[in-house]
Amino acid sequence: MEQSDRILEQERRRGRGALTCAPGRFERHDRVAVQDGWDIAEELTPLRTEIREERARSIINYVSSPDLPFDRSINPFRGCEHGCVYCFARPSHAYMGMSPGLDFETRLTVRRNAPEQLAKELSRPGYKVAPIAIGTNTDPYQPVERDEGVMRACLEVLADHQHPVAIVTKGAMIERDLDILAPMAEAGLVRVGISVTSLDAKLSRRMEPRCPSPQRRLQTIEQLVEAGIPVRVMASPLVPGLTDHELEQIIERAAEAGATSASYIMLRLPREVAGLWEDWLKHHYPNRFNRVMGHLRDMHGGAVYSAQWHKRMRGEGSYADLIAQRFRRVIRRLGIDAAQPALRCDLFRIPPRTGDQLDLF
Asked: What is the pTM for the complete model shown?
């Protein structure tokens, strides 16, 4: 069955990014809705978000990718209710026997013991401090965090240990935690990246249906900067033939809001994301399909995506070079081309716990 034949009715996927619930690459069987022949009208109710708990046995994920600026990360959630159709993390849901499509944004897993486990891992003998990245896979400030508070509790642990952290988000909910983040920033322990994909509110709502609007994200940058927190604007992902013309304007608007550095990543389509993206693009912007996919293939040697180190996030070739030149030019012009200061690692401590023997001297 073609993936396009699996598209769910608009009433069912209202407020969601993906169009289908196609199975992951490890599944032998498929789930397809069919008419059963009965002439009984059935109400098509919107898909609801389901939450299950996972007791994490470890929470710090160590990575060795040579093109990443960090070596460890934390993910409080599996799946993301923001529903960004382009999300490169979607294929991870296939490992749990679920669809990288609609399951990824409706069937979430929360690690409620993440703060407790984090404190244990930071207190282990021999732990060596380096900045922890949060939000590099799924967004820690997605809507479910409002009720769960797992991200806030993790920040409290990091603050108690005076541990450096780098946060990436699209969520305005980060403003809730300014009381924790501002003192950490004053000590040189935190920096934040805010992703702005497009300034077109209509396009943004289609691509990332449950994210704050572009204007709201710019306001979040202002709030963070006002609180003394260094902010990097991330024009990510940049979609060739759809949002690439906005590159300069996105960075300009963010700089006006107070961002002091910038970055960009080209659209990435690993594994199941490619089919999900193609369905979405044909459905919403059919006249842009050939242009967008043509640019992607030009950047990845004829494929829609290549996972090659140092090339997977920017691509290569004339089009990729042109985008890189435009980016360098705009950040130089705006004076935000300097690297962000390194986060401090020398303040780390293990806070005393109830019952600990205190030092006499």
From this structure: 0.91
